[in-house]
TrEMBL record:
Protein species of origin: Streptomyces enissocaesilis
Pfam families given in the database record: PRC_RimM (PF24986), RimM (PF01782)
InterPro entries: PRC_barrel-like_sf (IPR011033), PRC_RimM (IPR056792), RimM (IPR011961), RimM_N (IPR002676), RimM_N_sf (IPR036976), Transl_B-barrel_sf (IPR009000)
Family: Belongs to the RimM family.
The encoding gene: rimM
Assembly mode: Binds ribosomal protein uS19.
Biological role stated in the UniProt entry: An accessory protein needed during the final step in the assembly of 30S ribosomal subunit, possibly for assembly of the head region. Essential for efficient processing of 16S rRNA. May be needed both before and after RbfA during the maturation of 16S rRNA. It has affinity for free ribosomal 30S subunits but not for 70S ribosomes.
Gene3D superfamilies, alphabetized: PRC-barrel domain, RimM
Sequence ranges assigned to domain RimM N-terminal in this UniProt record: 4-83
Name listed for the protein in its UniProt record: Ribosome maturation factor RimM
Domain Ribosome maturation factor RimM PRC barrel: 99-166
UniProt keyword list: Chaperone, Cytoplasm, Ribosome biogenesis, rRNA processing
Acidic residues bias locations: 181-190
Length: 200
C-alpha cells in the first residue's frame, strides 16, 4: 500500500537540498538516507534520499542525482510516497495511519451519530477529519485528543466531544451513518493523529 509521507518544499542553499513538509510521525523510518520513494507525479521519481538533517526546525533532504539549486527547485511541491505493508501499524498505539481512519463513523460520547470520515487533511499545526454528514454536508473535526477522545478500530468509530459551535447538534442523527450507507456501493479508500502517516 502506498502512503504519502512528505511534500517537497523550496530549495535550500546551492547544493541540492530541499525543505520537506513531513506527513508522517515516523520520519526517521520513512525519510532516512537510502530510502527509495515513489513520487506524485510519478514521472519525477523514484527518488533516493542521499542525506537528511534538521535545520531551524525543518527537515532538509538531498536526493541522489540532485546536485544544485536548480535541480532542487524543480522538485518543489512533489509528493513523496512510501510503500508499506497494509498490516503494519505505527509503533505508538496512540498513532494511526490515514487508511485506518478513513470511513470510520464519528459519534458523540452518547452514541449520537455525526457522520463518516471521508478525508484527512494534514496541516502544520494539526490534522483535520473531514466528516460527511447524513444530509451530505461536511464538518471539519480537529484531530486533537481534547476533541477526539477515542479511536475504536474494532467498532470502526471515532468518539468526539466537540466544543460548542464545532458541529450543529440539531442535525446529528442517532442512527449511525454507516447503517444507511451499508447497502450502497463505494470506492475503497486508502488513506496519520495523531494521524501516523499522512502518509506513512
Amino acid at each position: 500500500m502506498q502512503l504519502v509521507v512528505a511534500r517537497i518544499g523550496r530549495a535550500h542553499g546551492i547544493k541540492g537540498e530541499v525543505t520537506v513538509e513531513v506527513r508522517t510521525d515516523e520520519p526517521e523510518l520513512r525519510l532516512g538516507p537510502g530510502a527509495v520513494l515513489a513520487t506524485d507525479p510519478a514521472s519525477a521519481g523514484p527518488l533516493t534520499i542521499e542525506t537528511g538533517r534538521v535545520h531551524s526546525g525543518r527537515l532538509l533532504l538531498r536526493f541522489a542525482g540532485v546536485k544544485d539549486r536548480t535541480a532542487a527547485e524543480a522538485l518543489r511541491n512533489i509528493l513523496l510516497i512510501a510503500e508499506i505493508d497494509p498490516q503494519e501499524t505505527p509503533e505508538d498505539p496512540e498513532e494511526f495511519y490515514d487508511h485506518q481512519l478513513m470511513d470510520l463513523d464519528v459519534v458523540l460520547a452518547d452514541g449520537t451519530g455525526i457522520g463518516r470520515i471521508t478525508e484527512i487533511t494534514h496541516l502544520p499545526s494539526q490534522d483535520l477529519f473531514i466528516v460527511k454528514r447524513p444530509d451530505g454536508s461536511e464538518v471539519m473535526i480537529p484531530f486533537v485528543e481534547e476533541i477526539v477522545t477515542e479511536i475504536d478500530l474494532e467498532e470502526q468509530r471515532a468518539v468526539i466531544t466537540p466544543p460548542p459551535g464545532l458541529i450543529d447538534d440539531s442535525q446529528a442523527e442517532v442512527a449511525s451513518s454507516r447503517d444507511e450507507a451499508d447497502g450502497e456501493s463505494g470506492d475503497e479508500s486508502d488513506g496519520s493523529g495523531k494521524s501516523g502517516d499522512g502518509g506513512a
